[in-house]
């Protein structure tokens, strides 16, 4: 474990030294380039010797030419953008508004459909609950009838209330409110 940590630390120090050495060399090179113009006032012999030792530097026109070309390209792009109209043409704007109106209409229809679907679902749940209650009442009535046929005493009250509750449950399902209305 400690050998691996030591190896990592040594590699890290090596990278740091390598980077610092490169930076120092660049810094010294930059200082040498700055001192060359200061010494430019010396004799021609010294300048000719220094030109032979250092490679020829490109002139400023060669350095600035790519930047100038890019700047020209950007100016042309901006000019083209400025030529384009800032507003949307009326025909296209009308098409956009019509599309928005259609979208709003579809959203409204979807909301209405959603409400109707929720109402139908809740009504279906109510009907299924009513059906379950009717099944339970039907089972109780059959059990009472079977008990009656066997000769066991029947509770008339149970039959009466069962038939009334059955009638009450059937009314909302059929929608016939006229059954209870006086004639």
UniProtKB/TrEMBL annotation:
Compositional bias, Polar residues, is annotated for: 42-53
Keyword tags = Membrane, Transmembrane, Transmembrane helix
Which domain of life does the UniProt lineage start with?
Eukaryota
Q: Which InterPro entries match?
A: PI/PC_transfer (IPR051026)
Disordered as annotated region, ranges: 39-59
Membrane-crossing residues? 12-28, 154-171
The cross-references to PANTHER family, in alphabetical order and at most eight, read: CRAL-TRIO DOMAIN-CONTAINING PROTEIN YKL091C-RELATED, PHOSPHATIDYLINOSITOL_PHOSPHATIDYLCHOLINE TRANSFER PROTEIN SFH9
- Stated name of the protein: Phosphatidylinositol/phosphatidylcholine transfer protein SFH9
């Amino acid at each position: 474990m400690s050998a691996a940590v030591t190896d990592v630390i040594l590699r890290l120090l090596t990278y740091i030294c390598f980077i610092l050495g490169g930076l120092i060399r660049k810094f010294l090179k930059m200082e040498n380039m700055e001192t060359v113009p200061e010494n430019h006032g010396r004799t021609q012999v010294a300048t000719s010797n220094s030109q032979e030792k250092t490679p020829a530097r490109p002139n400023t026109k060669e350095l600035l030419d790519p930047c100038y070309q890019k700047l020209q390209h950007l100016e042309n792009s901006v000019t083209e953008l400025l030529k384009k109209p800032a507003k949307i043409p009326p025909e296209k704007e009308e098409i956009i508004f019509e599309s928005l109106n259609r979208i709003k209409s579809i959203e409204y229809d979807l909301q209405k459909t959603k409400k109707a679907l929720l109402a139908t679902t809740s009504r279906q749940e109510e009907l299924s609950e009513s059906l379950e209650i009717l099944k339970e009442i039907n089972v109780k009535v059959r059990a009472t009838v079977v008990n009656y046929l066997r000769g066991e005493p029947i509770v008339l009250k149970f039959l009466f209330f069962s038939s009334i509750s059955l009638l009450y449950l059937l009314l909302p399902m059929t929608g016939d409110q006229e059954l209870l209305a006086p004639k």
